Structure formats: structure tokens, C-alpha cells
Description:
By secondary structure, this protein is of the alpha+beta class. Helices cover 36% and strands 21% of the residues.
Amino acid sequence: MIFLLSADCPDARAAWLRMELNRANYAYYVLDQPEIPDSEYDRLFKELKQIEADYPGLITLNSPTQRVGGEVAEGFSPVVHDVPMLSLNHGFKDSDVEAFDKRISDTLRNSNVEYACELKFDGLAVSLRYEDGRFVQASTRGQGTTGEDITANVKTIRSLPLMLSGDAVPKIIDVRGEVLMFRLDFDKLNKRQREAGQRGFANPRNAAAGSLRQLDSRITAQRPLSFFAYGIGLFDGVPIPDTHSALLDWYASMGLPVNQERAVVRGAAGLLAFLRSVGTRRSALPYDIDGVVYKVNRHDEQARLGFMSRAPRFALAHKFPAEEALTRLLAIEVQVGRTGAITPVARFEPVFVGGATLTNATLHNADEVRRKNILIGDTVIVRRAGDVIPEVVSAIKECRPADAYHFTMPTHCPICRSKIERLPDEAIARCTGGLICSAQRKQALWHFAQRRALDISGLGKKIIDQLVDQKLIHTPAHLFNLVSTTVVQLDRFSNKSAQNLIDSLKRARYTTLSRFIYALGIRHVGESISRDLAQHFGSLDALMSASEEALLEVKKVGPVVMEAIRYFFSEPRNRVVIQQLRAAGVQWPEGPPLPRKPAGSLIGITVVLTGTLPTISRKTAKERLEAAGAKVAKTVSKKTNYVVAGVNAGSKLIQAERLGIDIVDEKEMHRLLENE
Length: 676
Ligand code: 5U1
């Protein structure tokens, strides 16, 4: 083997160096068992770099030198996931776990279901594509169907193999898992950041997220990120193991990092025992977790259970209770919302809880403050509800100081001095100032500019505050009169960013009817109702002049929503703003309303039946579906809308899962037949 070390044979030497360095990386980052000293690693690395500099043709995709980050990207391109990245249903209590196990046992008719249990990492879900064993792409989850391309950044994660090892390497595989930062690495990074005069990150999750979102992958390369694999998306070329636990073993055999804190158990008792055992060791783990995940172990059983909208029925995330902390309530102030809603907000002494420093939390409404019996001056328990939204849980009565006092709802708006009113049947008090109130104007503008509404990029809250406070705009229509010479005078604007905002306003003029309806900010009219209204009426004029009866014909529009729509369009001020927006060039394609489907119709829907249905034959199911207008196909393709799966469903179910098609059971099929 002497010739491998010879400098006369650079390709062999480079191959040997790559192998040695990759092995050292795996031993260090995955097995946590360093094989060679750092100085030796650095020496081999330097030598490989030199060979590659002298012979660029020898650079391979799996060379460890390719992890150091490359050129600066302008943005992240979208990546459509071939198999959607799902989320998990959540449970918090033992009874949620018992109900999960019962549901599964009943559906599978198996009273002793086998589960794979894992940790729920507090990181970011990513999908890694390997083709013929080679790492080719990494993407974020996004909203599940489309994420962002973060290949250059993920490539810098040392524990990730750039090439899968072993004989059974698939032609294509999407490995799903979590990118995270170990606590020690996080502490070191924050120390470095502060020493460099930069702000530290609040917690390891934020640090991991911030690192993955770097446009310059050379910066990511300096961030100590880790990865654990826990799932699969698209795959081709080799059959995958029968169980989830075997899938993870297979991943590990190919060199992918798989967490070893996992177990295969049976029944609810097994699941809860796993949770308790992890709970006792949680603080000793070197990374943050926020719970555990239970998955039905057998893949064929997973397939039989199918999915509910965005989450699989075969899995449950059991979250640990939110962390709580004590602090002192300094004040209860009120905030004015887009529709004038007055929300009491608790201001308290800063307190670090659940990975973030909290200083305030919404108290929702005056009744809630009374119900919780919280006085200003109290010592209160705070937490992050669902580990995100700050919440005041309760006051410690024993610590109540003598001068603690009750919150009273102001009679007048703190912003515009208009009267605050509370309708007898409403929990919410409202400022009656409407668009006279600058707080409501700001919120309305922000809502209007949101990505899901007119999508005016570059128009954030701070800019809206300035535009309103300096009386440069009053209504959304005024936005379209802005010129860059005005914008550039605001804080935080350069000539270029001012022009960018003007350009994005130009683009935002071309929208869709449903986005425009949503952007108007009509009470109770969210994105989904806006879509239904646009589809139903086809034009804004038709919607604006719709009668009560016509509005009530729209799916999801009941009396409350109907009233809100009628009230909005009856307001002369709102009609003027709409007119101004149209005059400013805001436009959308309009057409005749779409023909309404006859009741009970599944016209245009393609369904595939597979397996034995519990109560009716496949023949009867086919007849019923066809009678409702559905096409019943024999094979699953991208055109399939639903797969109805019964017991012993086979390859069609697996194909549906791979293509991300909605899988329903017989019960849901009956619901479809009734509702559509
Ligand atoms: N450990 C683990 N985390 N996690 C997150 N497994 C796991 N599986 C997931 C997610 C979102 O999803 C699949 C069950 C679809």
C-alpha cells in the first residue's frame, strides 16, 4: 500500500486523504470517538487542499474540502418536495397517548401495536436528497410542500456524509431529519459572537435557524451544526426496510447520523415508560428537546393508517410541559388591534424561560384578567404556551404586596382618544375611532401589505409606523402614490432600498381577487373565506352588491361573517378606499362566477380504492363514488385526489404515500360523499 502515500500518484493520494478525513469526521462527529488528533486532521486536510489546488480535476463532491462554504448566494431558490414534509400531531397528557394508542389499535385491529420512540429535537426539519449515494440537495420544510434550497449551508455540517456508504445505496432517497446545535457548541458560538462585538443568539434553535439562513455558506461553515435523521421522503432503487426502527439502523449503516436515544416498545404503557425515562435524562442530554415522538413501527401499518390533512395518523409528538418561571408584573397596558380590539398586555420584569427572554404577554381581554385574578405588582408565573407564545399562567397570591392593584379597562383609546365600547354580547372592548385611530390604520396597512395579502415586500411594521406617524399615508391607497424621494427620507432607507419598495409596490398592483378581498381586512374574513368569496362571486362588484341571501350561499359564510361583509361594504369610507385603490391601478383578473357544483357532487375528483373496506364492498364504494361524479381509477398517479385505503392495502398505498396524496379511510370517504 506504500504507493498510496506517494506524491507521484496525486489521484490515489487524494482518494486516500479523502477516505481518511471522512473517516475521521465520522468518528468525531457521529460516533463521538475521535480517531486522530486535531493537528493530524489539519495536516491531512491541508495536504488534500494543496493537491486539489494543483489538480482541480481531482476535486470530488464528497471531498471534505467541499464543506468549507462557497460563494455568496443572492437568495434561496424554492424546492418543491416530491413527497410533502408533514408535521406531527401533538399530545401533552398521558390520556392523549392512551387515546392515540387506542385509535391505532382499533384501526389496525391489533391490541399490541409496536411503536418506535424517538426524541423530539428542538431544531429545524430538513430534507436531504442523495442520488446514487451522493448528497445533491438540502431543503427546508417551508409550509410542507415547497421549501428553500439550503444545499450550500447543509453541506458544511461535518457529521453529514457527502457520500453514503454500503452496498445497498438507493438510486434516490430523501432523508428527512433535524438540524440542531448542541448546547456546548451554542455556548462557544455565543462567546465568539460576543467577543466579536456581535449579538448572541437567544437559544440553540435560533442559532441553528440563523446559521441555515446565511446567504454566505462560509459563515455557516463556522457554525457548529449537527443533524439527526428520522424519516424518509421519496426513494427509488432499493426496497426500504419493513419497520421504522430498521430504517434508522439502515441509515446508520450508510453513515448517516441517527440518534441512539430510541426504543421499540408496545402499547400505551411502553410509550409512557419511554417518555418518563427520557424525562429523567432530559437535562443531561447535550442538546435541547421539547418532547418525544412515537411512530407505529411497521411501515405497512403506517400506510394503512394514512394521513389527516398535514400530519400522519401513525405518529404523535408528546411534548413536555412548557417551562415556567416567576417574575413581577409591572403594568398592564392596552394595545389597539386592526379592528379596534383593545387587548390588555402584561409587562413584567424580563425573565428567561423556554429559551427566550420574555418581557410581555397578551392577557386577551378584561374578563381573562379578572378570571386569572392577576393584580399589578403581583409575582406571576409565566411560560411559553406551546413553547412559543408567552403567557401569564397565574399570580402567587401568597406573595401579593399590599399596594398591588386591579387593572381597569380605559374608557378612551390611548392612541386616538375615541371612546372604547364593549358590546353586551362580546368579550372584546373596541376603540370606536376606526381609521381615525392611527393604531388601527397601522395594523390595517400591515395586514394589507402582508405576504398573503398584497405581498408588498420591504414594507415592515417600523416603516408603516413612520409613514403613518409622519402623516404620509392614511389609507392603503396612499401607498401607491409614494415616490422614492419621499421613502428615502425615512429611517433605514438608502436610495436602493427606497427604489426596491417602489418597485415592489408596482408589482403588488397586480393581484388576485381573493388576495384583494383578504387584504381589505374585513372582520372574520380570513384567507380561506376570501378564496371562497372570490370563487363564488367572480368579481368585486358582485361581492360588494351581494344580498344577505347570496352571501349566505357561500361555503363557510354564516350570519356573523355575512353581517361583517355587509357592514364593511356599507361603510362609505371603505368604498372610497376601494375606489382609490382601483384608481391607483390595483387590479386582478375577474370572470363570471364558477358554476356551482350540484350538491353531493365529486365531479373532477379522482379516487383510487385499495384494501378491504370495513363495512362496504369495493364495488359498492365505486358505485357510490361514481354516482357522486368521481372518477374511480385503478392506479395511483399524480392526478389522484384521494386514495381510500382499507385493511391489507398494499403497493397503491405506498405509491400514494410517496406522491403525497391524501389517504382516507372508509369513514372519511362517507364524509366526502356527504359534504362535497
Ligand atoms: N424524531 C422525530 N422528529 N420528527 C419530526 N421524528 C419525526 N418525524 C416527523 C417530524 C415532523 O415527521 C414524520 C412523522 C412525518
